Amino acid sequence: MIDLVADVVRIQRKSGNGPITVHCSDGLGRTGTFCAMFTVLERLKAEQVIDVFSTVKTLRIQRPGFVNDIDQYEFIHKAALEFVNTFNNYDNFKY
């Protein structure tokens, strides 16, 4: 999933940093998981902070139901941890 985020960042840059569209069947669970993970990794790169709870809470203001089960919430935590643990592999992953 981290590689998917990196691919999206690269494609977005090539297209002039325009908006991206993310959607799953209900527009909440997997969409929210991707958006939250993207935001968590962006904040980690910019501020060296990981705060999944606040990220999901903030996203839910705009879209109630984002990240709609504990497995998705845990996945975001695990992805952030994986990113940190393999940072040397992703140190060229710029925002």
UniProtKB/TrEMBL annotation:
Gene Ontology molecular function terms on file: protein tyrosine phosphatase activity
Domain Tyrosine specific protein phosphatases: start-end pairs: 1-74
Protein name listed in UniProt: Protein-tyrosine-phosphatase
Domain Tyrosine-protein phosphatase stretches: 1-83
PROSITE patterns: TYR_PHOSPHATASE_1, TYR_PHOSPHATASE_2, TYR_PHOSPHATASE_PTP
InterPro entries: Prot-tyrosine_phosphatase-like (IPR029021), Protein-Tyr_Phosphatase (IPR050348), PTP_cat (IPR000242), Tyr_Pase_AS (IPR016130), Tyr_Pase_cat (IPR003595), Tyr_Pase_dom (IPR000387)
Short name of one Pfam family: Y_phosphatase
